[in-house]
Design goal:
It comes from Sulfitobacter litoralis. The protein is mainly beta. It is built from two helices and 17 strands. Helix content is 13%, strand content 44%. The chain binds calcium ion (2 copies).
Length: 248
Amino acid sequence: MLARYILSRFLPILVAGSISAVPVFADVIARASFGNPTTRYDHGVLGDAVEWGSLTFVLTDGTTRRVILPQSLVFEDTSPRLADLDGNGSPEVIVVESSQTQGARLAVYDASGRVAHTPHIGRKNRWLAPIGAADFTGDGRLEIAIVVTPHLSGSVQLLSYQNSRLSVIATAEGYTNHRIGDAEIAGGIRTCGPQPELILAQMPWHRASPAQMVALQLNGKALSPHSFSAPFTAKNVAAAQACALNPR
Ligand SMILES: [Ca+2]
Ligand SMILES: [Ca+2]
């Protein structure tokens, strides 16, 4: 009797809840890709002078949406990254946008368009390279890790995403995940212990000589480095991410 009472009392609420959820779940991004190649931003940090002018989302219902940037901006990036930053069950899309006059910024999109961005670095031909997203603080929400000016200062920033706002919560200097002209971004995130770690190269990182590989761990407001004895190579990064290689 009690079960039936509870059911009859709460059923209308459950039904109402599922109806109101329909519009939200119609806008879930399944895939994202860059398009409209353009040479209007003459930087070539990713190996050629071609960047991207548009970003296309394919939603789970099969429909597509396309964002076309104004002439003043390009996507200066390898590929869009999907991560559910606000924990609502639907991924956001993380990309790098560069301004003709102000250089790169990190931007977050959802199916409705751009929802957050960092400030531009402030100068043309200044770039940033995303590392990835993971829950570094242990609060159940993802933070985004980036390297600002990976060929100059190598400034690592951990960004929280709250209420459509990106805020720097921890930093470290002198680490990189990219060399000028490389088509791909190296390194990444691994979770082998209780918290995620950033796998990066200690600067300087040149083609002629391998760099030291480090794992950066969030420690209060700092990112503390732990050095590997193996150098920063694609093979060693993969082994570190598979937890087969650990800091000494
Ligand atoms: Ca989300
Ligand atoms: Ca977190």
